[in-house]
Amino acid sequence: MSPAKTGKAKIARNGEVVVSFKDAFLVHMVCGLGLAVAFWFAHNVYAVNLVSDPAQTLNLIWVIECPIVVILYSLFRWNPDQCSFLKAAMRGLLGLPAGAILNTFGAVVLGAPVGSQYMKRTVNWSILMSLFTVVPAASVFGTSWKDWHRLFAYSKPTGVLDYMICIPAHGAAIGAWFGAWPMPLDWERPWQEWPICVTYGAVAGYLAGMVVSLGFTVIYGGRQQHVKGD
Amino acid sequence: MPSPRPTPISPLLCPLSASCLEATTLVGRAASSASMSSLTCAKLMAWTIVAILLQILGISLFVFGFFPVKPALSGASGPESFRSPMCHSVEERDERNLPPQQLRSLYQDTSGIPPSFDQLILMVVDGLPAEFVLGKDDQPPTKAMMEAMPYTQSLLSNGMAVGYHAKAAPPTVTMPRLKAMVSGAIGGFLDVAFNFNTQALLDDNILGQFYDIGWEMVMHGDETWLKLFPGLFTRYDGVSSFYVKDTVEVDYNVSRHLETELNADNWNLLILHYLGLDHVGHIGGRSSNLMIPKLKEMDEIVKMIHMNKMLPEHNPHRQTLLVVVSDHGMTENGNHGGSSYEETDSLALFIGLRSKILTYASATQNAASQVDMASTLALLFGVPIPKNNVGVLMPEVFGSLTDDQWLRALELNSWQLLRLLQAQLPGLSQQSSPCNGSSYEQSSEISECVGQVEQKFCHFFSKAAVLHSSWKSKKGQTVRSINGDDFRNAVKAYDEFLRIASEWLSRRATDKPLNLLASGVATMFGSSMILLRLLFLLCKQVYFAEKQCLPNVNKCSYKWDLDESFVLGAILIVVLSMGSSSMVEEEQYVWHFVTSTLYLIFLRKAIQSVLAGPAPFLLNVFNGQNCSNYSRASSVILVLICGRILRGWHQGGVNWTHLPDISKWLEQAGSHSIKFVQIASALAIISLWSFLLYSLRLKRGFILVVQTMFLISGLLVMLHIMQCQDHMFAISGYNATSIAQIVYASLGATVIITAVASPWVMYDSMSKTQSSGKPCLVTYLSIDNQIGSTLFELRYSSYLIGWAYTASWCLLQLLLQQPINAVPILLIFVQILSSLVYFSAAGIQHKLWVEVAALYFLGMAGHFGLGNSNTLATIDVAAAFIGLSSHSTLFAGILMFLITLASPLLLLLSMVMYISMKDLKYLFVSQDEDMGRLLLSTIAFPSLVPLSLNSIMLTTFTVILLLMRNHLFVWSVFSPKYLYVCAITASVYAGVIVVAATGIYVCLIFAFLKRNSNASIRNPR
């Protein structure tokens, strides 16, 4: 697939990879397409969807999406000279359960049901959320707390790579937050169950975040890199 | 990697030293004295009080406009209703207590109208629009409908039945409509609210009248009848309307009794309430495929009853009347509840009348009001018209009466309405002339009524009465033609009076005086504008003062932090979500979600500073900066976890109450485990509080006294918990009651002694031990002891008072709440404590109003965590009698208020502690300790923010209620919620008054003591 094409990342003086708009576009498109393929695969091959079997569908989606995200973002790893591709991918894979734990905490604290019958759904959902939020940053930055801090505690992305990681992640979280609102309504629709509409919200927010991130890349991309060079 | 740009936390990166503070306070003083003209303490207080008063005025205007208190007459009509209301009767007192048979014959003698029937079959077809049977706009019903009910249509065309479009009043739901039908009155909402624990119909109604004359009554169908009339029916089979999906079984369960009941002749009234048609409508709307078969089924039942009971040769001695009615109609989609024509178009069909109706049109094109049923049925069966009836007789039904009897019937109806009018219009004169026979010349003199409306009624009534009496006197003397004219005139006059009286009375009950409502809303809106304006000015002032203190930052214009914008957005979301009935029902999700999100944002903020490393923070003055940062993050996490447990404790709401939750799980585990948990949490609360007090290492003697009193109360509460084996027993039992009373007394004493004495004691102690040990929580706030030692003392004493308030409140709630709620109390308390730790450590990282708003949010989330909901059903009525030896509505009401609003009040009381935790004084206070500024800096935010937030909620929900006045759930969902909103408003007032009074008292005492000591220092020199 396309990672081979986009793989030629240029390295700036201070160790950061310089990402062109084309690269960003391709990464986002492949991630988005990966999601679409995963949904298609779940629907047509396994004949499940989010409403009929949320746990298995989420499982399928993250299993398909995981290699795509890890590989793509590992290509843009920070300091590629000192950090091999494999190491970055490993960091991403390690970030997956860690992010899942964080997302589970957030979801449960916000009222996600806890109980044995919801366990599988919650776990699969949080792994998917972890793919949207934590894994790209883990692959790219590893344990560089300064960068994590900048991206997630302050939400101050600087540069195309930051946009690519930060904005879709925030989009997914905000989308999931808004996706929870229809749950208490008494419409008696099957998709009001945890975590179906939350997943829809998260995916929608993630996709919207990608678009916004591309927009930012177009508007600020060139200038930011210039500033950073100083 | 670029260097971090100026970030939102940069206001905090102000290197702070005593000299800076010294200088900046001077600058701040100069600046604030310029801007202070905008807001001084006195001004703020005056405006706040004005706003509160305006709000109270607005609420009362709105409530009286929206929930008209229907002046219902108590008691039931008796034989006096057959006498003129214009005269005081003498001997009627005991007549109503006659045995049924005598009462029945008395009614027969005095009424002047012989009862036309002996038996009544009231067949209620739930949700049947009259259009299906009678057609619409003078057109016969559609062909399909005609064919669906062939027997009924043949009865109509043969003149054996007469049908009415009986207009129902909103809300078009079953229970109020049944009430309207049998009592003839249109009820208000508040009488539902006032007797929320009983659904029984207590007003005078025809079923009660039938019961009084000894009727045997049987009911098969909707169990609403059983709730309305408990114990009235000799035989019954109630079906539930809960399973809307079922359209067959509900009706079969009624019809299966029909044959036996029709054969058994031992009843006078048979009520059959068929729910199936309503269910068909709910599933598929008016044009559902199931509708025609259902109508056919109903037609079969009519046919069966008619064949069995009413064909004349059957039983000449027992005359039976079949009345087919519907309680309401339905919209095209099959819903109902509103006030559209489709929903209010209900049916009243009388089958088996003695007179023959001439044409099909005159049998079908009659209009009436649903409330007319009561008076019509009453006079048909010879019982008095119910007291609160506003309906008028349906003339076609009385076709078999003679002229004399018909006029008498109209007269009886007029008398009853006149009595009701007299109750509502005191200006209608009650002439106390003796009533001998029919001296109608006298009653023509009642034109001495005062007032415009009264005079109108007087005029019409006396006109009718005069015409009636002249017709009577001429009867038999004159020729028939003149007589006929007189009769028509009299009937016309009566009709006119009845029409205007009925219209006026029913408008009183349903009409919402729009100008009253609008002025109420406008007043509330104005008051919340005042409050918001004050809050805005205060924020601006703080902002400027902050800017003066930290001059090197934030040159740009005001910057919104994430938490600020979230609080604003959350308020907006909460307010908007209240427009949806299911969000009102499930409000606990909304509050928990919003509160948790706010605390997650706080967590993010805490992490920002954890990772920021040892930056020169404002609060860096004390040691262990990083440690405190981590403790901040962990205290936020503690709040979040407690909140989640609280949320899982009671499932709450309406739609998902059946889902498992912790309280159900504990209840399954048995009462022993509940008791164990209760005692454990009580112990935890008491020991935590004692520890908090113990850590205040000064003035040991006084603290020891307070602690002892507190421990005694705690022990008594524990004793009370042990005494009551289960909560059923808690209400009774002399021992438990006296313990509870002692607890009330000792808690009250603790609070009062602490509140009154602590400023005096603390001042004394502090002046001696200036910089000795610091209490653990207060450690966080000591920026600089040099900024006026008085402030420090002030904080200590308000800490102590706040401690006493909250501790006593927790103990009180342990006593009052259900045993299962002991842990939620503990959790809320832990939440408060961790929030206070977090806020005191956060310094000025958050805007003050955000912190107070967060506490308010916690209070609301905790309110639902204690198992409350927006229905009146969750109010714990039984617990309101704990510790009351005699029944007292006032005290029980107060206790009920305290129990229901435990959590918002607790959070408001904790504001007193919050004042002591928060150090803001450097923003306002100069060395000379101006009283006004001191007050402004302490109590302004904790009292203004809850008031403003609540005013927003109140005003917007009022508007929502106004918009939803025709909604299906206006009475079941929105109106109870409005009562809760009003109650929460009251609790906010109470809490704010306590906070403000405490603040003012403490400040006054300190100012007084300070002046005294200054004087005593100066004087010796």
From TrEMBL, chain A:
Keywords annotated in UniProt: Endoplasmic reticulum, GPI-anchor biosynthesis, Membrane, Transmembrane, Transmembrane helix
Residues annotated as transmembrane: 21-43, 55-76, 88-110, 122-141, 161-180, 200-220
GO CC, any one term: endoplasmic reticulum membrane
Pfam family, one: PIG-F
Subcellular locations according to the entry: Endoplasmic reticulum membrane
Lineage: superkingdom: Eukaryota
Major location category of this protein: endoplasmic reticulum
Keyword Membrane attributed: yes
Biochemical pathway: Glycolipid biosynthesis; glycosylphosphatidylinositol-anchor biosynthesis
GO biological process: GPI anchor biosynthetic process
Membrane topology: Multi-pass membrane protein
Protein name: Phosphatidylinositol-glycan biosynthesis class F protein
Provenance organism: Protea cynaroides
Lineage, uppermost ranks: Eukaryota, Viridiplantae, Streptophyta, Embryophyta, Tracheophyta
TrEMBL record, chain B:
The keyword Secreted is annotated on this UniProt entry: no
One Pfam match: PIGO_PIGG
Chain ranges passing through the membrane: 44-67, 516-538, 565-583, 676-694, 701-722, 742-763, 796-816, 822-841, 848-866, 890-914, 934-963, 978-1009
Keywords linked to the UniProt accession: Endoplasmic reticulum, Glycoprotein, GPI-anchor biosynthesis, Membrane, Transferase, Transmembrane, Transmembrane helix
Domain named GPI ethanolamine phosphate transferase 2 C-terminal: residues: 566-998
Top-rank lineage group of the source organism: Eukaryota
Listed GO biological process terms: GPI anchor biosynthetic process
GO CC terms, sorted: endoplasmic reticulum membrane
Membrane topology: Multi-pass membrane protein
MF terms (GO), sorted A to Z: CP2 mannose-ethanolamine phosphotransferase activity
UniProt pathway annotation: Glycolipid biosynthesis; glycosylphosphatidylinositol-anchor biosynthesis
Subcellular location: Endoplasmic reticulum membrane
Family statement drawn from the similarity comment of this UniProt entry: Belongs to the PIGG/PIGN/PIGO family. PIGG subfamily.
Protein name, as recorded: GPI ethanolamine phosphate transferase 2 C-terminal domain-containing protein
Organism of origin: Protea cynaroides
